Amino acid sequence: MSYCVLRSKSAGYSYLFVPGLHKTISMSSLKMIGGVVASRRLSGKALRSQSAELSVLLAQNKFTNLRTMASKAVTMENINPNIVKLEYAVRGPLVTRAGEIEKELLKGASKPFKRVIKANIGDAHAMGQVPITFIRQVLSCVTYPENIDKSDFPEDVKQRARDILNACGGKSVGSYTMSHGIEMIRRHVAEYIERRDGHKSDWNNVVLVGGASNGIKNCLQLFINDLDGKPSGVMIPIPQYPLYSASLAEYGLEQIGYYLDEDKQWGLDSAELERSLTEGSKHCNVRAIVIINPGNPTGQVLTRENIEAIVKFASEHNLFIFADEVYQDNVYAEGSKFFSFKKVMTEMGEPYSKMELASFMSVSKGYMGECGLRGGWMELVNFDPDVKANLFKAISAMLCPSSLGQAAVDCVAKPPAPGEASYDLWLKEKTSVLQSLDKRAKMIAETFNQMEGFKCNIVQGAMYAFPQITMPPKAIEAAKQAGKAPDVFYAFQLLENTGICIVPGTGFGQRPGTYHFRTTILPQPALLQEMLDIFKGFHEKFTKEYS
Amino acid sequence: MSYCVLRSKSAGYSYLFVPGLHKTISMSSLKMIGGVVASRRLSGKALRSQSAELSVLLAQNKFTNLRTMASKAVTMENINPNIVKLEYAVRGPLVTRAGEIEKELLKGASKPFKRVIKANIGDAHAMGQVPITFIRQVLSCVTYPENIDKSDFPEDVKQRARDILNACGGKSVGSYTMSHGIEMIRRHVAEYIERRDGHKSDWNNVVLVGGASNGIKNCLQLFINDLDGKPSGVMIPIPQYPLYSASLAEYGLEQIGYYLDEDKQWGLDSAELERSLTEGSKHCNVRAIVIINPGNPTGQVLTRENIEAIVKFASEHNLFIFADEVYQDNVYAEGSKFFSFKKVMTEMGEPYSKMELASFMSVSKGYMGECGLRGGWMELVNFDPDVKANLFKAISAMLCPSSLGQAAVDCVAKPPAPGEASYDLWLKEKTSVLQSLDKRAKMIAETFNQMEGFKCNIVQGAMYAFPQITMPPKAIEAAKQAGKAPDVFYAFQLLENTGICIVPGTGFGQRPGTYHFRTTILPQPALLQEMLDIFKGFHEKFTKEYS
């Protein structure tokens, strides 16, 4: 059961040779019929003379054998093509290489550095951030309820654990919860949103999810449709967080990029939105717009005016709004303030207050950084009730998000209140994390801006800097020789020479001819300083080498 | 911004009236153009005369106004049609109604019963099963590492917690893990599989997942493709677990049902497999086969001979095998034994030992019943390396499964060993759960078989009975009147009259003209006895009423 891809020496195109079928098939037909179909015809008795036939064809010297493949049921020829297209740079080849280097170092390999610094992913605890005690004490009690009586945890921790357990089937976090989450926790989230925005939030619109990415994918999925023979399109910022490009590729949805304005602190410009929509509408039905605020990878915090302009634009074109607001607690710059899309929309009045919106939040970011627990929520605003019912139905087949992720959500949505036993410690820990992130945000932008060939916007919020680098022409040439994009080439050089792992701008998108990278601001201050010093040294050497 | 669906009184077909567009559009065109496209043309300035125009048309008395809709960005007209098709009966309308009844009871409603018994879902802890201490002590330590020093937990618990934390970034379960899971735990799973099967398992082929459903969907997704203009098809058993029908609908994959043989203890028959494949091949490329063993909802445990026949069939037709083996620990009947597909395939030698297979396992079932933690794994056997790389890439965009779900997987894959401090208690707890399930499995089948009009196969394994019921013709008529399938009608009657929530056979599929339902065997013995007594009484009354 095998087949070969042969390249015709004269014609310059490829054939699939299927032994037993007594014929060759062109590559375009191959794509049509699929390896599986062909090889199924082969199975059983039809298969005897395969090697003899193949040798005859090769002996006639008309073909080169490109590759012989076992005819697997799933091959690169018949796999879901959208999965092949999908890219997710935050965990791409560079990160794989970083993992290999770590293993090499462990085995005693000699390198010009002693450790890998993973500045590629917003993974706070991995970079030394300490968990919030309140969250962890509650988790420790709900997983092992004897701790409620036996431990010396504060009373509010114990009460919270009791409340969560009472909301679980059989009073165990081992039970399935409702698919959209535990009702009590959904109510707490709605109260949190009301406090944040000063406007009503209906807990029935709150869905707990196993991380914001899950919720985003659930909502994106609603748009898969070929109306009028055209696919649906979704507008996303460029640069963007690659979950969006990956999910759009996976779902066969069209990615309609709109550029953020680097010169205006990565803000959004209405004219650019219009340009992007007009361009996109040529080949798809543009139906939704994604906004990431505070921005990832770009670190901007949108002004209220900017949000209003986006809402008007979306209303004018009847676009559904995805408000990715997972960094809502991460705002550092003086004068910057987080406004939720829901708040702004609501305060703009009708028709804007009636627009459809999904807003996403996560326990992985903010001051918590509990990425591994997989907890988050989405608020679904102004959905058609039938559409919402269908979304809930789709979610239900996946049973439920992690009960412990939900427990963490509860601690975030309803943190200790003033006067409660855990309040002081909770506030101290939260403040300390956010102040330190603030300091690091400033430190990183300042350092980059002192480096020749670097230009870095202020990190107003989120957890990343996204500086632009000037690439010497010789480096661009060397990258071309290496078959890599210039920023990817730079990032690999940085990794191999210093152990610093960043993500090149290519993974997020950038204006053609510009080069960027994303680094987190998460290494603890001493390590961050070390990283920036090493970075500086590398960059000088790199620039010299390629000038 | 609204539009109306009008029905022409003379022609008997519907129009979409779009104010501002100055024309009506037939329903088929509406489907083509989508509400959004139409309503987008409406937005802004074009909208002034809408109500005037509408009144004119209605005044001409040619149309009935079927409904006026706000032109949402996502409507039932332009939503992903696959999401509308998707059904998941285990959490369907019956379960929603059960939840409402629970709330009504809480509010003091007078009902002929005092509580709802949820026998609809395999949710062990919710039905009173006690968590395994070892798992929970480990979780309590990894979430709050101070417990390692401060608690009086056994030494092996503390060591396990240390091992898991050492395998986490920053020694915190709040860090992201690798997308396919923590390496140490993947190695432990491979060792578990080796002990189970007596054959090599490569930890690189083990992927940790947030519940088996996630893994199953990840693999099903590989098959989305239109080769030769035909969609891919996947063979699934009828009756089946509705995650499969739901996911196939969601992905636009064709569901090719093969009937299990109720008279042969729900075994598989090669002739039926061939019939199903031949039938399915007419309109799609059949590329994979799903087997659930032990069976859900049917409770059978396949014999080794049966598995061999399936493997041969799959090999002959080059089908990828999905082996849903999440109930591998749940085998009760004398003479029944669990054989993994991988073990059987391996021992059959080539070409069978080279076939592609994905096997799924979960911490939600077995003796653990930790549904809420969302932990599981899949073993990917004989994958094309490029296909595997693409699957891993797709998984990476979702970051990682819950670290705490993974910690639970570790405790299941590597339970306490003889001689270790937790071993005796762990064995006692495990044995007690499995023995009790064994007793309940027998009790439920015996009771059903004593009831008139019931026929129930032995529950050899898993957590469910799937009895057949004879429906009196008058009941079938009454169901028709109520617009319900007869088994759905029966299940609703049962729920409203007794508070017992089961899932009708329609949700799983059954041979036309037969009626079944699925009930779990999970209520604790006393409650199960009570449930069966109530059930018996209801069934007698129901039969009398409709005879």
UniProtKB/TrEMBL annotation, chains A, B:
GO molecular function: L-alanine:2-oxoglutarate aminotransferase activity; pyridoxal phosphate binding
E.C. code: 2.6.1.2
UniProt cross-references to Gene3D superfamilies, sorted A to Z: 1.10.287.1970, Aspartate Aminotransferase, domain 1 (3.90.1150.10), Type I PLP-dependent aspartate aminotransferase-like (Major domain) (3.40.640.10)
Annotated metabolic or biological route of this protein: Amino-acid degradation; L-alanine degradation via transaminase pathway; pyruvate from L-alanine: step 1/1
UniProt keyword terms in alphabetical order: Aminotransferase, Pyridoxal phosphate, Transferase
CDD domains xrefs: AAT_like (cd00609)
Catalytic activity: L-alanine + 2-oxoglutarate = pyruvate + L-glutamate
Family matches, as Pfam families: Aminotran_1_2 (PF00155)
The Aminotransferase class I/classII large domain, residue ranges: 153-530
Subunit and interaction comment: Homodimer.
Similarity comment text for this entry: Belongs to the class-I pyridoxal-phosphate-dependent aminotransferase family. Alanine aminotransferase subfamily.
Matching PANTHER family: ALANINE AMINOTRANSFERASE (PTHR11751), ALANINE TRANSAMINASE (PTHR11751:SF29)
Name listed for the protein in its UniProt record: alanine transaminase
Native source species: Leptosia nina
